[in-house]
């Protein structure tokens, strides 16, 4: 395998896209027969969930029948975490098949508030990233849901839009309103259709002829370049269990999977229709803008061929990157930078010390979306242990002189995974660098306190850093104790030029905003994933701080599959 080699290549092709179809798993026992029928006329499916009890993983079924898939996570039911795990499992077996993940479906029209949906989108993305899966994550809502809750768009890599002319308004007009508000880069139609029978709605008649005409209109509209990357037509087959009657008859096929009329799903492409990849740039990266990633094997020539081939066959691919046997398919090539190791990129200057500010590994409180402050002394879960082990591997060749942590178990356990590779380093726990205290909210689900959560964060965003959690701390409280404790640590151990300190998510965001920006409002733009590393150089004589890397999670590459490790030299 290759290690520490990065290749970036630009592609010259404008790729083919094709309309797909939404699939309801109500008759999941026949999923293989259904996907075989779908593949006769479509290249892509969208599902509302990925886990089906007692049945096949939906990604497995799609791949086995040559279909790409937009996999769903259903958030209004008991199988939410099962869906996430099914995506992880399916991706590892068929990385080429998964095009994106959609979290939820029309939830904003079904009693959920926007913060609840944002939290779910972020949680799914974080769990997939922790499993080394860099696929796009978004949500599906009606156009009205998106327009009335634009904050959700910022949390999404891709935005699925459900628009039905049958229920009012024109597809083109409503789509154009979405493009005008959000731009077209992240948008795609995830549902549109017309029922073949079952009555009328607001003067629109459900009938065979109207349904066929509407499908042909959508096909022509899509072929002209509208609707996003892969318009998903609703739906594959009728669902007799729905009501009212017209809801039963949206299928292009009947309930027995027989097509109702002859058609071919349209494709679209732009010239040139064939192309090749440019010569590689070595040890270079164009960070972000990943459409998806997948693991590859072979010698370097084979790796380049596999990555180039996938890029030229993927709609919207502008280039690719290869690092540690993973190919990243990218939508945009910008922000070029040289690849650097955790410590080697920037030499440590005389009079400066290097602080590696880390976050602990995942706990069940993280996984379940609960408040977890200084009042909760939780342990790492299985994934958190693996993340911490991977973090330890990343520090193997960093000449650490000290490894410290907060007094909480999740931080101490993570620090232990680092210090085991540095038997001569000083170790210890530090008072004052624990997570923010959430008071009465400790242990509660974030979703249950969504209104309070939004209220406190909104006050912080407005500059009121004295806003505190009931019975807990404010951002100003954490800044005061946190910066004092870290300065004391650095001063006490001034002879140690490189130290790692394991702390907590909100704590790190507060401290980084204070040290780097002098404004705690900046913490809203600082991400801190589990076991991330922030590389900071500190000049004790002047108090100057320089950041070389923030929220670095490159060590996640050492986690291979959710139950195994892939050990590579740094």
Automatic annotation (TrEMBL):
GO CC terms, sorted: plasma membrane
Keyword Protein biosynthesis among UniProt keywords: no
Any one Gene Ontology BP term: polysaccharide catabolic process
Compartment annotation: Cell membrane
Pfam families: His_Phos_1
Function text: Glucanases play a role in cell expansion during growth, in cell-cell fusion during mating, and in spore release during sporulation. This enzyme may be involved in beta-glucan degradation. Active on laminarin and lichenan.
Name by which UniProt lists this protein: glucan endo-1,3-beta-D-glucosidase
């Amino acid at each position: 395998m290759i290690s520490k080699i990065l290749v970036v290549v630009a592609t010259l092709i404008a790729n083919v896209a094709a309309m797909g179809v939404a699939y309801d798993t109500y008759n999941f026992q026949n999923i293989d027969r259904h996907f075989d029928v779908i593949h006769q006329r479509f290249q892509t499916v969208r599902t509302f969930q990925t886990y089906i009890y007692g049945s096949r993983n939906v990604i497995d079924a799609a791949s086995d029948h040559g279909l790409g898939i937009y996999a769903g996570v259903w958030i209004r039911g008991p199988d939410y975490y099962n869906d996430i795990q099914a995506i992880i499992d399916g991706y590892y077996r068929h990385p080429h098949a998964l095009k994106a993940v959609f979290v939820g479906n029309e939830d904003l029209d079904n009693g959920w508030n926007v913060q609840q949906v944002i939290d779910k989108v972020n949680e799914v993305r974080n769990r997939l990233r922790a499993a080394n899966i860099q696929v796009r994550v978004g949500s599906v809502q009606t156009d009205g849901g998106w327009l009335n809750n634009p904050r959700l768009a910022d949390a999404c890599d891709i935005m699925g839009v459900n628009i039905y002319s049958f229920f009012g308004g024109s597809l083109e007009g409503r789509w154009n309103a979405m493009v005008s508000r959000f731009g077209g880069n992240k948008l795609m139609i995830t549902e549109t259709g017309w029922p073949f029978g079952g009555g009328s709605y607001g003067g629109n008649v459900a009938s065979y002829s109207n349904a066929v005409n509407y499908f042909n209109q959508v096909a022509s509209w899509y072929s002209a370049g509208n609707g996003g990357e892969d318009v998903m037509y609703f739906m594959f087959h009728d669902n007799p269990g729905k009501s009212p009657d017209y809801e039963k008859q949206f299928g292009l096929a009947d309930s027995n999977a027989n097509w109702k009329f002859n058609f071919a799903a349209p494709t679209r492409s732009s010239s040139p229709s064939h192309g090749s990849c440019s010569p590689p740039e070595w040890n270079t990266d164009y960070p972000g803008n990943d459409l998806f990633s997948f693991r590859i094997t072979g010698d370097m020539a084979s790796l380049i061929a596999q990555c180039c081939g996938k890029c030229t066959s993927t709609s919207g691919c502008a280039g690719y990157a290869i690092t540690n046997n993973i190919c990243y398919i990218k939508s945009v090539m910008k922000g070029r930078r040289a690849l650097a190791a955790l410590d080697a990129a920037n030499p440590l200057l005389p009079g400066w010390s290097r602080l590696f500010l880390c976050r602990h590994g995942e706990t069940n409180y993280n996984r379940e979306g609960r408040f977890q402050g200084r009042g909760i002394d939780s342990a790492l879960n299985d994934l958190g242990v693996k993340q911490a082990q991977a973090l330890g591997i990343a520090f193997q060749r960093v000449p650490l002189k000290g490894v410290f942590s907060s007094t909480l178990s999740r931080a101490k356990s993570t620090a232990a995974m680092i210090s085991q590779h540095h038997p001569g380093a000083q170790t210890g726990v530090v008072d004052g660098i624990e997570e923010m205290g959430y008071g009465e909210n400790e242990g509660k689900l974030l979703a249950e306190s969504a209104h309070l959560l939004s209220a406190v964060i909104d006050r912080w965003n407005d500059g009121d850093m004295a806003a505190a959690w009931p019975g807990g701390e404010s951002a100003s409280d954490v800044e005061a104790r946190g910066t004092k404790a870290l300065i004391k640590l650095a001063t006490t151990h001034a002879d140690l030029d490189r130290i790692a300190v394991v702390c907590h998510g909100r704590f790190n965001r507060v401290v980084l905003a204070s040290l780097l920006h002098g404004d705690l409002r900046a913490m809203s733009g600082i991400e801190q994933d589990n076991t991330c590393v922030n590389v900071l150089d500190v000049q004790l004589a002047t108090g100057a701080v320089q950041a070389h890397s923030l929220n670095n999670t490159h060590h996640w590459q050492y986690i291979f599959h959710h139950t195994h490790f892939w050990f590579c030299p740094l």
